[in-house]
Amino acid sequence: MSSAAKWRSAAIEWLPAERLGERPVDARLRPWLIGQGLLTTRLRASLGQRFELRLGDMWTGLLGADDKRHLAVSDTAGLFREDELCCDGRLWVLERTIMPDSTLAAHPWLAELGDSALGETLKVLSGVDRGAYEFAWLPADTALGRRALRGAPHAGLWARRSRISLRSAPLAVQELFLPMMGAA
């Protein structure tokens, strides 16, 4: 299975923030899921030396219909990037960024971020706007759930996503919160 295919799933229902209260969310995970500010910055402040950001994988692939709709683009392809946000070497959040080809054409430096955190890089730039978060419960048997859980025996996990506009060029960020994050 290709890396892009691992992320596709038609069964995911993304909810606006005002509907998140309709679903049960672990009280220990809720502050991380709905909290304001960059997640990477919040984790660094909370965990100190225990925090680690690792570049997981990066690939070019086709954008799915949901990706195109969320990004409001007609691009057929883009760059997919995974970052692993870890505590004591254990994965807490799997973050995926989708950069459509049109965005990469306008900002080719995005493909060269290396192990730099995207959010921390963007926060110092002008012309960056983040849209509202959407939330989803990802059952373990969805493609996204399987990818993030990596075989761990859990029912599923919570995720959030947002659309970011970088000087009118869109990209999307999805953050998948592993269950052990709420238990820590």
Q: How would you summarize this macromolecular structure in one to three sentences?
A:
With 184 residues, this protein is of the alpha+beta class. It has helices at residues 3-7, 30-34, 39-47, 65-71, 101-106, 118-122, 143-149, 179-183; strands at residues 15-16, 51-62, 77-87, 90-100, 128-130, 134-139, 156-166, 169-177.
What does this protein look like?
With 184 residues, the chain is of the alpha+beta class. It has a domain at 39-80 and 99-184: Chorismate lyase (3-Layer(aba) Sandwich). 27% of the residues lie in helices and 35% in strands. It has eight helices and eight strands. Strands 1, 2, 3, 4, 5, 6, 7 and 8 form an eight-stranded antiparallel β-sheet that branches. The chain is globular. Residues 1-10 have low confidence and may be disordered.
Please specify the SSE layout and strand pairing.
Elements: H1 3-7, E1 15-16, H2 30-34, H3 39-47, E2 51-62, H4 65-71, E3 77-87, E4 90-100, H5 101-106, H6 118-122, E5 128-130, E6 134-139, H7 143-149, E7 156-166, E8 169-177, H8 179-183
Antiparallel strand pairs: 1-6, 2-3, 3-4, 4-8, 5-7, 6-7, 7-8
Let me know the average pLDDT.
87
Measured as a percent range, the helix fraction is 25-40%
Tertiary shape: globular
Order of helices and strands: HEHHEHEEHHEEHEEH
| Known CATH architecture of the domain at 39-80 and 99-184 | 3-Layer(aba) Sandwich
Using the coordinates shown, work out and report the CATH topology of the domain at 39-80 and 99-184. Answer: Chorismate lyase
Based on DSSP secondary structure assignment, what is the total number of beta strands?
A: 8
- Helix/strand/pairing category: alpha+beta
Number of DSSP helices?
A: 8
What's the alpha carbon Rg, rounded to whole Å?
A: 16 Å
* Poorly predicted spans: 1-10
CATH class (first level) name of the domain at 39-80 and 99-184: Alpha Beta
Distance between the termini: 32 Å
Strand percentage: 35-45%
Major beta-sheet overview: 8 strands, antiparallel
